[in-house]
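User: My advisor asked me to double-check a structure prediction for Tetratricopeptide repeat protein before group meeting. I don't want to rely on an old file, so could you generate it fresh from this sequence?
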Amino acid sequence: MSIHAVRRHFTTPALRRRWFVLLFTLGLTTQPLFGALGYEGALVLTPVISLFALAVGVDAVRDTRQAHASDPHAMSLQTSGERLRLLFLRGLGDLCSLLTLSLGAFILANFWQINCDLPGGLLWFLVLPTASGLLGLVAGLWGGVLAHRRGVQLALASVPLVFSLVLGLWRIYVDPVVYAIDPFWGYFAGPLYDEAIPITARLWWFRAYNFLVAGAALALLSLTLGPGLKVQLRGVSLRRSPFTVAALLACLMPGALLGVFAAENGFHATEASLANALPRTRVTDHFVIHYAANSAAARDIDLLAAEHEFAWRRLAAQIGREPRVPVHSFVFPTPELKRAWIGAGNTEVAPPWRGHIYLNEQAFPHRVLHHELAHVFSYTVGEPLFGTSSAVSWRGLRVNLALIEGFATAFAPRSESGLDLHDQAAILDRLELRPVLGDIMGFGFWGKSSRRAYTAAGSFCRWLIDTRGVEPFLRLYGTAGDFDLSYGTSLDALEVEWLAFLRARPLRARDVEALRQRFKQRPIFQRPCAHRAADLLAEANLAHHRGLEVERIDTLRDLCSIEPEQPEHRLLLAQAEAQAGMQDAAAATLAELSRQNDLSDTIAALVDERLGDLALARFDLPVALTYYDRALTRGLGDNQIRQLQIKRMGAADPALAPRVLAYFDPFEPNPEHPSEAVLRLYAAEQIAALPRYAPLGGYLLGRQLLNVQQGAAAIEPLQRALHPEEDEHALSTAELRRGARLMLLEAQARARNYDAAARVLAELQEDPDADSGLRLDAALWTERLEFLRTHLP
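Assistant: Sure, here is a fresh prediction for Tetratricopeptide repeat protein from the sequence you gave:
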């Protein structure tokens, strides 16, 4: 190849674009998740293709003008429609070359990248970079015909992109959404921790809206394109182009309707549009709580409102600052409804600058409310625009995600498997899964497993607050992590101290094993099939709801094949097989799973429990007892231990066994159906009626009544569980007695019997086996009861 030919590749705009797109896409294919043809790769590629499509449209106009410069008479003989067709086809050919190169690179990457859903990836490529590229081409054609100098043409073509970007960013700032959908820049589906990202009707309607507007723009250009490829309004005759006029109106009218009613079509949301989904409100001193009628939140609104105000008081006392009021709290009855309206399904979010929190319904007391409200409080110490831990300096923009999430986790710590925040972090360190703090103090936070990153950041921030006070930590947050300014020492030095504190904490082997599975989960960027796995899980659930059990099982087998390292998938498959009456297949699936070498105690215990359930259903009680006993030797949290202990009691007594099986009903195909709650309540009553089993029946009956928010009704059976008659079997384990007291504490608080609740709380605090998580929860309950005495007397 001659030097002239090589130079041509660097000087010709079309060739430069092709080389850039090819090399850019090949670079993407070296990264996990982004390198496979799918949502992430299409998302990153979309703005690149859109920007180059502008230049493609401009150059199509310039090249055509140059080609006809020697014979302007020939162009004057063409109709405006023919001129536009010539321009569009020229630009389309160049755009197709860019799309073909990028698509080819993605397909070639299948040799070194795992692609679990090639058809789905092709659809994402079509709906994101291809669609946005076509829209960019239309904008480029308009920019090209409106001017002659290339720089001016590109600037004019960029106006729609800049306008849509500014509008989209403004909507994210002011509107109650965490997703962004843009004609040129693509579709950001929301928080990274929601693995299911389907192509929804919202995106299809938005693309229909985009192409209707683009069609109207092309029709208008066809009407006004003069011989010199310039817009020419004088001499335009609508009568001579009736079909073009009809096309203009056919695109413009429905396109305008879709644009005007953008919120109603789900392109974005406003507070007013959310009122359609959550029409009820409760106004308190600091909140406007939005919730759905006939929901669990509606039935529990007094306690929910009180918990909001309690969370406010605790955070205000700790931080010493309060955000502006009112804070709007949106409580959605289902994750699906929340995802449809704001773009986050299973992830609760709270943009600090907006003064909003978006929650899924949870049982009282809401576990995530305090954390999300802490994000709102962070606005009082963060930078003034977003209230986050970020700063701009000569070194560029710094966003400290570890401090953003560490702030909320530290001021609203939660127990997990009976352990407090520091014990969780200590176990993370013991398992050698703790992220280095320097690696998560920026955008690297997103590259780590969320559970590991949140735990490490939260524990470190809480340790800083406890050892050095609140004010230096708030200063650290406001400077986006300037440790030398805030503490007079480096992050590395502080990390050494924090690790020494963690390693001095005593840990039980069972606690380490109880959290091993929780921390084993890899970050989404290291799971190339994460989105396909979420899609398959959704398909399996849909088949289950439709009663298509064979289809459900086949889908779950596909799920197991694409992520064989995820033992939870095989547990789901075994459950589906058992619910379909295929007990032998379920036992074989569980036996295959049990042979894996790297199972955590949590998963191994679940396998033993499921095998015990199968034996219990066959009334093979000795075998069931063996499996339950083996499961109980594992390192487990209290909740899993309690369930196993009750099942073991059933396996040890032929009279109790069928009733315990009826209560848990592990093979019921529709465990969430309302009738199942009634049947569980009936099974608990039957257990209570058995000779000497009134305490166990009371325990289970109280649990069911609390599930439907009937605290006053749950008090009597729970007291019966804790104070049996002389001839009755008392709750035989510390875990069951502790569980009964925790339920009785909630029941008494719901009934506003605060003195009785305080007595139960005192018994929990006197428990010699109380672990750090229980002590943390008990301290929070002490404050809560004090608050409720005055707020809900």
